[in-house]
């Protein structure tokens, strides 16, 4: 049988431990994924597909940007620049289609899931500008220089949209780290207190 003073000391010790300041955590807003959505994201192969296509599209973008700027600056390499924009547009369409499948699997909707609503909205503008370039190229509407300027506008929109997604994915990663830290901290603080209660 424990002594009343020992029980009181144990309770005070537990309260002191619970009141200790915990490690500050970055505030990253509402969680992007529920536990179920996170599990579906980690389980589906479409996550890997997006992980491969996103850097591939960025690489194509960089190469094409150099070719387009070279043409605008020197007038040389018009065909190479035009083909590069077509390839960039094809990769955009591919990642948009597979991205819709990914959102359907993870969030049960094809587009405009709350977690990525504004990113998807701006993606529509990116898609519209790339499609406008395709129409101009196939129809011969606008001269070559104007077409390349349109391509640059599409690329600027793409760069903004890519930044949106990178910031959102960084927030998701921080949320995952904070969740694991909170779990570990909870176990660390409750462990000693629970052990003392058992001993008392």
Provide structural commentary.
This protein has 200 residues and is mainly α. Helix content is 82%, strand content 0%. It contains 6 helices and no strands. The protein has helices at 4-19, 35-43, 45-74, 78-107, 117-139, 144-199. Helix 1 runs antiparallel to helix 6 and helix 4 (78-107) packs antiparallel against helix 5. The radius of gyration is 26 Å and the shape is elongated. It starts with a helix and ends with a helix. The relative contact order is 0.13. The model is unreliable at 1-28 and 192-200 (pLDDT under 50).
SSE-based structural type? mainly alpha
Mean pLDDT level: 81
- The unreliable regions are 1-28, 192-200
Strand content: under 5%
Topology as a string of helices (H) and strands (E): HHHHHH
In whole angstroms, the N-to-C terminal distance is 8 Å
Number of helices: 6
Assign a percent range to the helix content: over 70%
Shape category: elongated
Largest sheet, strands/sense/barrel? none
The whole-angstrom Rg is 26 Å
Count the E strands.
0
Write a concise keyword list for the protein shown above.
about 200 residues; mainly alpha; 6 helices; disordered C terminus
């Amino acid at each position: 049988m424990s002594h009343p003073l020992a029980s009181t000391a144990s309770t005070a010790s537990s309260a002191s431990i619970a009141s200790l300041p915990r490690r500050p955590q970055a505030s990253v807003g509402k969680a992007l994924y529920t536990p179920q959505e996170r599990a579906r994201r980690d389980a589906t192969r479409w996550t890997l597909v997006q992980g491969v296509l996103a850097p591939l599209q960025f690489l194509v973008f960089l190469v094409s940007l150099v070719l387009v700027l070279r043409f605008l600056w020197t007038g040389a390499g018009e065909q190479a620049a035009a083909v590069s924009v077509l390839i960039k547009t094809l990769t955009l369409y591919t990642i948009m289609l597979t991205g819709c499948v990914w959102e359907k699997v993870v969030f049960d909707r094809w587009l405009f899931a709350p977690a990525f609503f504004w990113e998807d909205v701006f993606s529509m503008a990116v898609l519209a500008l790339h499609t406008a370039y395709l129409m101009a190229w196939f129809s011969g509407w606008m001269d070559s220089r104007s077409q390349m300027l349109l391509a640059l506008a599409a690329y600027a929109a793409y760069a903004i949209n890519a930044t949106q997604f990178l910031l959102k994915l960084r927030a998701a990663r921080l949320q995952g780290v904070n969740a694991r830290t909170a779990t570990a901290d909870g176990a660390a603080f409750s462990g000693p207190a629970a052990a003392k209660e058992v001993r008392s």
